């Protein structure tokens, strides 16, 4: 059916998005996978974890937000967990900088963002009592924007926070962000979970998937601080804001704590993380989205342009990378219903599951390790789908 009214606006918006993707303004994604152990043993891991809520949906949230006996108030959460949050101060060739962090265990390990300590010559942390302690960087993982510090501090200064379960979080739940925004001192802001499963850009241009979106105020200096649920357990590490001005505009993102758990254990135990790699640059708009915004059904789009009816489009592949060696290829940008779209291979299934867009591929691949294989169903333009097995390698340092 033709595009009219609201559909025309959507098509215009999609055209702008696609033009930005093709022009590089929106980063396309070289996919990396899960983690494996490398390096020497540098420490022990002792993490406090809390089980997911067991009540009915909204039961704990309602109690916490309302301050009833079913959950703590914001004041109670801040009073209990605030002392476990630290300010991180960094000195580097670029000058002074810093952010936030939180105590992970009684061994003095502290979680922060990798971009906070990137290139640091020296690092110190300031606890809630005002005491400043020198810290060392134990390990960094730019692919997830997580770093681990270790501070030599007395036991009474170390108040580890409890890690929650980011997979159990729901949109609309209240959250609390604690950190040192704009270096004004430890502060708390509140909001809700605005969205889930958001892909965000890592410092080395790879993709961190399943980020938690929140409207709790996150400003420069908040990076590395905890995002807490209504029970006061950590569900994410505050990392990014999306803003045209560089200040808070209600769109913040936290690295999900379930991703952080696996990373910190490896950083503490081995000092680094080795990610797997498939070497595929994915187009951010899936086939079904293109059909929707063009005003065609997936069947009509397929008949007109030789595309499958669903899938994630491959824009490019790394030469001699795993996908390239498996016979997957990208393609030149062409007009598809007046939209600029790469005419590369389309991944329609991953391990037998249907694919709607790039996020479906990323989610599966990120759950695997180097040396694992992933089974794909791939369709080249105007050709029938074919099975492709890809052996994951170790990814380069930067995308």
Explain the layout of strands and helices.
Elements (H helix, E strand, L loop, with lengths): L5 H18 L5 E9 L21 H8 L7 H8 L3 E8 L2 E9 L5 E4 L1 H4 L2 E7 L5 E10 L4 E6 L22 E6 L7 E15 L5 E8 L11 E3 L5 E8 L10 E5 H14 L2 E10 L4 H8 L3 H8 L6 E6 L4 H4 L7 E4 L2 E4 L3 E5 L2 E2 L3 H8 L7 E7 L6 E6 L1 E2 L5
Antiparallel strand pairs: 1-14, 2-3, 2-5, 3-4, 4-7, 5-6, 6-7, 8-9, 8-11, 9-10, 10-13, 11-12, 12-13, 14-15, 14-22, 15-18, 16-17, 18-19, 18-20, 20-21
What does this structure look like?
The chain has 399 residues and is of the alpha+beta class. The protein has two domains: 6-35 and 274-394, Roll (Pdz3 Domain); 39-271, Thrombin, subunit H (Beta Barrel), CATH 2.40.10.120. The chain has nine helices and 22 strands. The strands form four sheets. Strands 1, 14, 15, 18, 19, 20, 21 and 22 form an eight-stranded antiparallel sheet that branches. It has a six-stranded antiparallel β-barrel with strand order 2-3-4-7-6-5. The protein has a six-stranded antiparallel β-barrel with strand order 8-9-10-13-12-11, surrounded by four helices. Mean pLDDT is 82; it is low at 1-42 and 54-69.
């Amino acid at each position: 059916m033709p595009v009219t009214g609201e559909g025309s606006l959507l098509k215009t918006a999609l055209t702008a998005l696609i033009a930005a993707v093709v022009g590089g303004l929106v980063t396309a994604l070289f996919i990396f996978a899960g983690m494996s152990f490398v390096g020497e043993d540098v420490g022990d891991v002792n993490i406090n974890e809390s089980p997911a809520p067991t009540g009915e949906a909204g039961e704990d949230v309602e109690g916490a937000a309302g301050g009833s006996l079913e959950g703590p108030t914001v004041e109670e959460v801040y009073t209990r967990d605030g002392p476990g949050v630290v300010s991180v101060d960094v000195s580097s060739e670029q000058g002074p900088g810093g952010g936030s962090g939180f105590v992970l265990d009684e061994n003095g390990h502290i979680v922060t963002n990798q971009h906070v300590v990137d290139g640091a010559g020296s690092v110190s942390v300031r606890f809630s009592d005002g005491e400043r302690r020198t810290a060392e960087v134990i390990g960094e993982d730019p692919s997830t924007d997580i770093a681990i510090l270790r501070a030599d501090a007395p036991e009474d200064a170390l108040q580890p926070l409890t890690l929650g379960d980011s997979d159990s979080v729901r949109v609309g739940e209240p959250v609390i962000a604690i950190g040192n925004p704009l270096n004004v001192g430890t502060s708390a802001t509140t909001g809700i979970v605005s969205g889930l499963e958001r892909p965000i850009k890592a410092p080395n241009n790879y993709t961190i998937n399943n980020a938690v979106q929140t409207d709790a105020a996150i400003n420069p200096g908040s990076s590395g601080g905890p995002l807490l649920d209504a029970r006061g357990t950590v569900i994410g590490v505050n990392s990014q804001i999306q803003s045209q001005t560089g200040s808070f505009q209600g769109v913040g993102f936290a690295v999900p704590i379930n991703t952080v758990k696996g990373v910190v254990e490896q950083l503490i135990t081995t000092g680094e993380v080795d990610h797997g790699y498939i070497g595929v640059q994915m187009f951010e708009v899936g086939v079904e989205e293109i059909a929707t915004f063009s005003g065609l059904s997936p069947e009509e789009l397929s008949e007109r342009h030789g595309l499958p009816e669903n899938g994630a489009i491959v824009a490019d592949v790394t030469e001699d990378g795993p996908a390239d060696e498996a016979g997957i290829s990208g393609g030149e940008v062409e007009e598809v219903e007046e939209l600029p779209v790469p005419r590369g291979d389309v991944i329609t299934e991953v391990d037998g599951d249907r694919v709607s867009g790039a996020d479906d591929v990323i989610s599966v691949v990120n759950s695997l390790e180097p040396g694992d294989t992933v089974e794909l169903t791939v369709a080249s333009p105007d050709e029938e789908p074919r099975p492709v097995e890809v052996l994951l390698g170790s990814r380069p340092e930067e995308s």
